[in-house]
Amino acid sequence: xxxxxxxxxxxTGVTKKFGTFKAVDDLDLxxxxxxxxxxxxxxxxxxxxTLRMVAGLEELTAGAITLGPQDIxxxxxxxxxxxxxxxxxxxxxxMTIFENVAFGLRRQGKKDVKKQVEDMLELxxxxxxxxxxxxxxxxxxxxxxxxxxxxxxxxxxLLLDEPLGALDLKLRRAMQIELKRIQTEVGITFVHVTHDQxxxxxxxxxxxxxxxxxxxxxxxxxELYEHPRTTFVxxxxxxxxxxKAKVNGTDGDQIRxxxxxxxxxxxxxxxxxxxxxxxxxxxxxxxxxxxxxxAGGTExxxxxxxxxxxxxTDVSFIGVSTQYLVRMPWGQELMVFxxxxxxxxxxxxxxxxxxxxxxxxxxLLDADQDATAGVEREDLG
Amino acid sequence: xxxxxxxxxxxxxxxxxxxEERKRGWTGYLLLAPxxxxxxxxxxxxxxxxxxxxxxxxxxxxxTGYSMTGHIANYVDTLSEYSKQFIRSIIYAGIxxxxxxxxxxxxxxxxxxxxxxxxxxxxxxxIAPFFTSFxxxxxxxxxxxxxxxxxxxxxxxxxxxxxxxxxxxxPLAVVTGITYNFLPFMVLPLYASLxxxxxxxxxxxxxxxxxxxxxxxxxxxxxxxxxxxxxxxxTFIPAAGDYINAxxxxxxxxxxxxxxxxxxxxxxxxxxxxxxxVTLMAxxxxxxxxxxxxxxxxxxx
Amino acid sequence: xxxxxxxxxxxxxxxxxxxxxxxxxxxxxxxxVLMSFNDPASKNSYSFDGFTWHxxxxxxEPIGMCDAVTLSIRIGFLATIGATALGTLMAFALVRHxxxxxxxxxIFTFLPMASPEIVxxxxxxxxxxxxxxxxxxxxxxxxxxxxxxxxxxxxxTVKARxxxxxxxxxxxxxxxxxxxxxxxWRVTFPLVFPGILAAALLSFSLSFDDFIxxxxxxxxxxxxxxxxxxxxxxxIPPQINVIGSVMFxxxxxxxxxxxxxxxxxxxVTA
Lengths: 381, 301, 270
Fold this sequence. Notes:
Chain A is of the alpha+beta class. Chain A contains nine helices and 20 strands. Chain A is elongated and about 80 Å long.
């Protein structure tokens, strides 16, 4: 599908072992030229190792990396048309901002770097900081210097290793928009490594979710969110309720799944795995914000999926929404996020409620997968 | 002390050169070779040579040459003759090390936690005495502890020192000198380990109903143990072999093993001097090993 | 109220004790400076008998003293160069390279620091004597010894600096088109240099101040510490204290000016 002129970044069967530990396992990946690509995953999933192999800072154990027609698998880092924005920036502390940004140009033997460096500092809005040393800048400014230092070389691919990880939340949001703007402006391929799902979804055209050295799923952010194909993706991108159910037949293009006497319907194309459907045992998944609450016994199942006789066990009011925990008759607690539109009824702890949602929002996953895979721990937030 | 911004994000990337990041190949050996060779020829081989000298027949001399007779008796003879000086060295060095710890801990603690903006100045002050020759400094103790000096006057005045009492040329003077000379070797490692302790741990201790003293005992002291171990070793080892303080501040009854070795060398009794040297080194190695074993830390280098 | 008072005392008593200990450490320095202005009543008098500028105006009056100082400076200078060069190379090998026998290398560096000087001095003497150099002890044997005992301190100092160097800085340089050679001279070396400089200063002061090892291996040569030692037996010329004071103030000046320089640079641009 890629046209032959494109300078796509292609990883084929890339593997990296540290001793016996496989950090990256037989990875295939194509990053189209000019795209903003995010590698998303938890700590230790192999995303940074992948990035470092593309930069040439880590040697491949097996496989190949090509950039357009050129095989760069074993090129020295300084021979690759690839630049990196490092986590914590790695600015040279003994050089001024100007010299940091000029470093790459000077090493390529370019004279007269002044104009280019000034333009680049202008682009990242640091024009008047050229004479300072890195330690005299704030975190956000240092981050922009690191970006300028890499971008000025006009690389074919820019690698960003958790570039916003060291910034506070507010600054991080501002820099996300800034990075996206710059990428659109310069049109260079960006490969962005992050563990922050919101960051990946805000910025990238394409997100690849990585786990344990493998890519779990790849696609546009909305596609990944609405249509997760593994429990890991369902939990790592946002939150999901996963309910164990038995498949007991199909109605046209809908699959019927049964849980404790209730029947749930799922469009056939929203089932991740046909084999799982045939085996009969599945996870029925639904995002908490897609679920509505109604007072116990009031909801009729006219085409929507309904689970009855839930009991509210916890209510947290968080401004735009209210988050409920509802204990179901089989003991599982399900999450429900209700928007505070004012039109919805409030419930209290102990109230009996019915849960209902549209079959089109439901997804089916393989019941052999771990339902807690990818659940984000609090301390990683 | 470090000014580099610490990465706040999850530390997935390498933080320090991990062993697998070290370069392979011959360059390492090439870089290592000159220094290793120097240490081999001028430190390790001399040690061997010292051991063999200690086994020479003591009846030889520099002029007539020594014959290698495996004369183990050198050890027995010197040890029985100089055991008093030997034990005295260990005792003096031990007392001085203890004194260094008692003086050095409050100082290191004050620099690490109480000095505020004067921290660097106080650190400079700790090493400043190093800036001038230690022999000259030791000599000035002769004056401070002299019979006419105010220190002696005050001590006589409050009755701690008899009318005829001296400070100079006493064991006390020798220990004072040793303590003085090796105090920075105690303070600096202590400071280095105390400085690493997060002051918030003190607050956490207080928050958990520990009195300041309990916090100090249960939190600060255990965390500073590497510094205590390094400091006591760095003080005790050179102190045990020192003879300058004993010579300049002591009297013939305060002679330490270092004086004996030096005098034997001066007198040309090489085998005996070598035997004593080897004994001293062996004693120190044994004590250090036992001590490290007890203290349970191996972070020395 | 009582608790707060207790806390105040607790807070400040440690500082007070610390300052008293510092005073103890500085007392001899005061004496050295004071005695440099001493006008001794007799040759063997070692007490302050009167004030004079004479010693400062005629520092080289005691026979042989300035020769001893010159010798110590020469040896200190050469020992510093030798030890710093060898030690820096070794530190790079230890931190950056993979080789067999790492623990042996670590023991080699650690042992000289853990040996009493008298043992190191006597073992070197034993080597020189059994190798037949007993008659040629002098400048070169002193230099050899000094390089040997300074080496370990250089290795430890440079190693610490090198280990604290973020490897990502060098990776960033390589990523920005600097080859191995350029990366070393433009990034690694400038960043490790303060450590090398500190190691060199330490080496010089260790060498200049050494007595025990030097005394055993010096033959007929007299370094400054040996001169002081000899003078201590005969009667101490006040000029020794002039040299001691000059050394002290020179070093103090260097340290303070570098500190002030760093602070000012930080303030001007912050």
